[in-house]
Predict the structure.
Amino acid sequence: MKIAVIGAGYVGLVTAACFSEFGYEVICIDNDKYKIKKLKKNIIPIYEPGLSDLVKKNAKSKYLLFSNSISKIRDANIIFIAVGTPSSRRGDGEADLKFVFSVVNDISKFLKKGKKQLVITKSTVPVGTGKKIQDIICELRPELINNKDYFVSSNPEFLREGSAIEDFMRPDRVVCGVTDKKAEETLKELYRPLNLREAPVLFTDIESAEIIKYASNAFLALKVSFINEIANLCEKTGGNVQMVAKGMGLDNRIGPKFLHPGPGFGGSCFPKDTRALYASFKKNKIKNTLVKSVINFNEDRKISIVNKIKNLLKPNIKNKVIAFLGVTFKPNTDDLRESPSLEIIPRLRKLGIKIHAHDPAFNSEFKIKEFDKVKWYSNVLDAMKNADLLVIHTEWNEYRGLDLLKVKKELKNPIILDLRNIFNLDDVKKFNIKYYGIGFKS
């Protein structure tokens, strides 16, 4: 089986590498010549544990190839569309599908009559996109007969940054939206290597598959916002949100995952997908307040964190120094997309606060306008020297093992604001450090 993956971004590259690990012949195509040139030299453009080794191994064995030419799809049995679907610049929250439809236009030229190629959206797309793709191909290639010459399907990704390889190889489920038995048989064969791991493969219509992706992310975002609201209640009443979350999570109907308070959700999926889902409700004239409230709460959450920091630095805020640990939206990734830090740090800078930052994944991409005048340190303890406050923003393992005695010696004022609750309150108090977390009284 030959596979073409169009898009060498996060989803496309992980998808291509993992399918090549199954022993399929995979070609990963991208119009970014510089990116493809780097990939051919085994230089990986993203930070994802295990991905570099996987790419190098399968590129060496020739199971994984890279190209700039869309014409390479001619020989593929399956063509994955894995390009970005960012929020529209119109500001209405809708997903911008220009990259998807551009790819559909391009691949339409090279689909082979009679080859029965399967065109699959791996990109996150709103409901109805599969039908539009089908219409575009029909219009551009009227001589091709849908369900005889080609098939359109949906196979949304559920990859978590930082553990994407594990999620692909040992998925909770694989969702496939199809309109034809032949497409279903092809996808069953494609995912046959997962049979030994007993991964559930769910076959639905295309529209349901498209909605499942958005509904899943919005529901998880809801859990994050819900536990943050409960954290606010705990701080006022004396409850402990970690105990509350544990008690909730022991209920199998709820589960413990995503019940972790913090500065709000970020990344390439939750913010974008909740906005797109809400836009779908609006487009179809369906009243929705729940998803919208999640979006609003997440935006307000960042402001409330800034206010929390201000209160810890009062009365004289200007020229105070904060050691800010971690700026990515989660650990084990260098992804800054919609990270709460992009909102929190600029607001602190406007107050005249100086930011000394550290992140294990720091690279040149971190030098952006939102982090203007941020002073970066390669050593985490150096970032703390003479700081008035230590803020832990991202729960990197490197921070969990910090020597608190050394931390206290470096800080001008021994105060920690832990936005991820990575330390135990009693353990920190032993060092006479003022410790503030999320969702409990210090």
Notes: DSSP finds 16 helices and 14 strands in the chain.
